[in-house]
Amino acid sequence: MTSDPAVQPPVQAPVIQDLADSILDTLVHRIGKDAQAARPHDWLAATILTVRNDIVERWMASTKAAHAAGAKRVYYLSLEFLIGRLLRDAVTNLQRNDEVTQALKLHGVDLAELEEIEPDAALGNGGLGRLAACFMESMASLALPAYGYGIRYVNGMFRQRIDDGWQVEMPENWLAHGNPWEFERRESAYFVGFGGEVAVADNGQVHWSPSEAVEATAVDTPVVGWRGKHVNTLRLWTASAFDPIKLDRFNAGDFSGALADQTRAETLTRVLYPNDSTAAGQELRLRQEYFFSSASIQDIVRRHIQYFGDIRTLPDKAAIQLNDTHPAVSVAELMRLLIDHHEFAFDEAWKITRATFGYTNHTLLPEALESWPLPLFERLLPRHMQIVYAINAKLLREARGTDGIDDRAIAAISLIDEGGERRVRMANLAVDAVR
């Protein structure tokens, strides 16, 4: 008879007592409550932090092993990660469910009740986000080194309330008690620009001078694989102004104006899928997508150069997977970094880019294949618009040299939709980047 690997062996009493003591110690010294004063959310935070201590050691070991082996990494870019409640998932994957249950019972606390009050992380909406979360956990279970990249939404989608039979949408406040799973990485912060002008120097070097910029800062959450043998990283981005408060305006009595830049920056990470039926909503959506794409690509390039030196070897050490069209602007962003910052010729940069990206398309419905009004794209991302034009010119030139390709086919594969309002087709850009 073979044993079921999901069945946990009996836990020894000293192990349970040690864990119970660790949870209580965390409650007192990290949460600042004793057992009599602690409320359920305090016990939840103390339990998560105690379990997290075990995860962190495995996390560091997994990262060090990947670095030592020079392993190729998967970088999964997604606007959504529907990760759900992590405590139940973590203790199950660590095979410590019985141990944690019995340790909490010594304090008169029920693990199942704590699992129920843990908020659902408002980082995703549906199948797209659930698939991303499943892929991250699957890669950890298979010991494939991987990073997930997305946005740390403060309010997610919405919380539903029914009044007299009608749906009322309320802000999702999932971070009301903080998030004990995450680690802020202030050292991993990047400049993300919007708008401005593009200039060409006498030597032909292109320089983009954005008119507006925000700082993207990383927040990391460990992703535990089955049996806890490997732990990967979910890296989400927060946004802030470089000058959060303009003190001169504040002292002059313009309190709202003094905080305007910070408020504008924070809108990037407020809500998943803001209503894009207005021009302002469309602009915010594009800003969000470029914000997290730019920060992620900068982080990937920085890490590669730090550990491997030569950016030309990026395709050998990195596989960047685009989950739907939302991060497709990453293609133009990598090209911008290679050409403008690392001084590659266009053709060599395009060769590296094509060898690095993969793309997942979830539906062929036209409304799901994102495109952006060309004037909006050009105003927000003028340098990227130039790069898209250059990629498109190369694509159409190659297509016209292929037998059987007529003008109708050329119009269909073009990165620019010329039928009516001119639009930038993000799915076409992503497909061309992975051919």
Note down, in words, how this protein is organized.
The chain is α/β, with parallel strands linked by helices and 435 residues long. It has 2 domains: 1-69 and 94-119, no CATH class; 70-84 and 120-433, 3-Layer(aba) Sandwich (Rossmann fold). Helix content is 46%, strand content 19%. It has 17 helices and 14 strands. The chain has helices spanning 13-31, 40-69, 86-93, 97-105, 111-117, 127-141, 247-251, 255-258, 260-266, 279-308, 314-317, 330-341, 346-356, 374-380, 382-400, 407-413, 426-433; strands at residues 73-77, 146-151, 159-163, 166-170, 183-194, 197-200, 206-209, 212-224, 231-240, 318-323, 357-360, 371-373, 416-417, 423-425. The strands form 4 sheets. Strands 5-8-9-2-1-10-11 form a 7-stranded mixed sheet. Strands 12-14-13 form a 3-stranded antiparallel sheet. β8 and β9 form a beta hairpin. The mean pLDDT is 94.
